[in-house]
Description:
This protein is 44% helix and 6% strand. It is mainly α. It has a domain at 12-70 and 77-99. A two-stranded antiparallel sheet has the order 1-2. A hairpin with a 2-residue loop joins strand 1 (69-72) and strand 2. Helix 1 (12-20) crosses helix 3, helix 2 (35-45) crosses helix 3 (48-64) and helix 3 (48-64) runs antiparallel to helix 4 (81-96). The longest helix has 17 residues, at 48-64.
Amino acid sequence: MTFTYTPGDTSSATRVRLLIGDTDPDAPLQQRLENEEITDLLTISGGYRAAAAAAADALAGKFARLASSKRMGQASLEWRRFEQLTSLAKTLRSSVSLAAVPFAGGISVAQRDTLDQDTDRVTPSFQKGMLDNPSSVNTTTT
């Protein structure tokens, strides 16, 4: 298993790490994700934003197993990493829809012809000429 993070890298895995704050290569194994885990999440989720939400959930699961507080005499410490990560996952999921890119078909003749030949394509609900009345064909000659 490997861990890499290069600031400024635009790869999807680096973007996932940046969005969830998993950028410290010296963090203990139980508190970070490995490259292979992020690759799996990218494969399952599709885009890097959805994968980041899944990664935040995965990291939250790791933190859920760790102690959340420690007391030493009068002093006490409390870690809220689990809550932070689950809140982050929720926020990232809501931002996934904001990254949707609209598609306008029929921009080029070649693209239209390619789409028309796709046998797995859903038949469009509306088509040119769909309301034409065959009995109203002009039969007059000039």
